[in-house]
Inverse folding.
């Protein structure tokens, strides 16, 4: 069942990756065109990340009650609807409709991340990070293809009488709808519901049901045995998300200011997304082999290197921009897989979906904050200051790990 579940999740992640790439690649540029200012260029990333926060909470709740299949299918369906709304808003030149549609579009991003948890429900404790890594790795194919299709999708949009930058959102609508259909039809039996049945069989049904009915959900959440595992995992993912989203959001705008064309932007974001997902199998093995703490520290160091590289590179240097964004994606990959493994370690099937949904809300809100503030920081200071600041934020992972170590012991 774990092999079958992993295969279905992989297929859905390939499709979902193509959907999330649209907002990452051209979201800031679309806002820049429609709003006429750089200061608000981070608003699209902030909005669809804020939408992903609400969706993470809802998908976690629905999954807790009805299983992964129902929660993930509804999330991808909402993401596809939001992508269509962005296309209509761009065609009509309606900024309010664009903002609302971006909020709904964020559902796809949240669902794509939540799907990684489905890969861990039936995994053994010693292979959870590896299972997460396989799910994330599969996202690479769609997520890298999306940015590199910006030019042909823009041409398609123009052929249909739509604004060029709305083209990638046409792909997102189709991709998210297809991902939802795959999960609806093929994710049977539901891995979370099956994991609960297996837990009940192992511990005794009456005892498990008694525990669930008498212990408040929040008490179960906080009583995670390696004491602060879920909290540390959430902290790692929040800090890496802020650093990654802020730099990634303003890089296309920075490139455009230095007269690099849209195909260059697509290539840089493609490399960045490849670095976010492609190393996942190796990262998963390293996390399971060398431990969560070592890989969290590695995440902080790599993100600092990304921030410094982005800060010192000339704006018209395509090669250094690629290096900075690749390091940024790699550091995020280390942090996400490490944090996810810690959260899964600290939960059980009876409370897992609920806790994971709450954690992903924090991660999404962190991304929204990074996206919105990134444009404002650059407008007041510079892209270099933003990049260096984000690298230093990521470095805060190390004191957080030191603070948590005695509690885990």
């Amino acid at each position: 069942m774990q092999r079958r579940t992993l295969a279905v999740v992989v297929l859905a992640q390939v499709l979902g990756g193509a959907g999330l790439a649209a907002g990452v690649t051209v979201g800031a540029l679309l806002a820049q065109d429609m709003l006429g200012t750089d200061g608000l260029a981070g608003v699209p990333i902030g909005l669809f990340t804020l939408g992903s926060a609400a969706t993470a909470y809802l998908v976690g709740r629905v999954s807790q009650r009805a299983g992964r299949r129902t929660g993930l299918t509804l999330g991808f369906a909402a993401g596809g609807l939001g992508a269509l709304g962005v296309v209509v808003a761009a065609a009509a030149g309606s900024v309010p409709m664009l903002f609302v549609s971006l909020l709904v579009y964020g559902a796809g991003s949240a669902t794509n991340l939540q799907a990684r948890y489905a890969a861990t429900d039936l995994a053994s404790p010693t292979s959870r990070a590896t299972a997460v890594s396989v799910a994330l790795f599969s996202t690479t194919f769609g997520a890298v293809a999306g940015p590199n299709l910006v030019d042909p999708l823009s041409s398609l949009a123009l052929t249909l009488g739509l604004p060029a930058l709305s083209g990638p959102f046409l792909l997102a609508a189709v991709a998210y709808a297809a991902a939802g259909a795959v999960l609806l039809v093929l994710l049977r039996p539901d891995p979370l519901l099956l994991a609960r049945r297996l837990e009940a069989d192992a511990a005794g049904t009456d005892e498990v049901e008694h525990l669930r009915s008498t212990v408040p959900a929040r008490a179960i959440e906080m009583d995670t045995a390696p004491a602060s595992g879920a909290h540390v995992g959430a902290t790692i993912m929040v800090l890496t998300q802020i650093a990654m989203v802020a730099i990634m959001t303003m890089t296309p705008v920075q490139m455009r200011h230095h007269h690099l064309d849209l195909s260059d932007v697509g290539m840089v974001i493609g490399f960045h997304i490849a670095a976010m997902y492609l190393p996942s199998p190796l990262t998963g093995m390293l996390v399971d082999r060398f431990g969560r703490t070592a890989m969290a520290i590695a995440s902080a160091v790599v993100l600092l290197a990304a921030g410094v590289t982005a800060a010192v590179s000339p704006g018209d240097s395509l090669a250094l921009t690629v290096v900075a964004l690749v390091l940024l994606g790699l550091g995020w990959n280390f942090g996400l897989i490490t944090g996810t493994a810690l959260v899964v370690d600290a939960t059980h099937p009876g409370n897992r979906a609920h806790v994971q949904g709450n954690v992903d809300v924090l991660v999404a809100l962190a991304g929204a904050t990074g996206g919105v503030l990134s444009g404002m920081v650059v407008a007041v200071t510079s892209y270099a200051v933003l990049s260096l600041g984000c690298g230093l934020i990521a470095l805060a992972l190390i004191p957080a790990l030191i603070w948590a170590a005695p509690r885990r012991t």
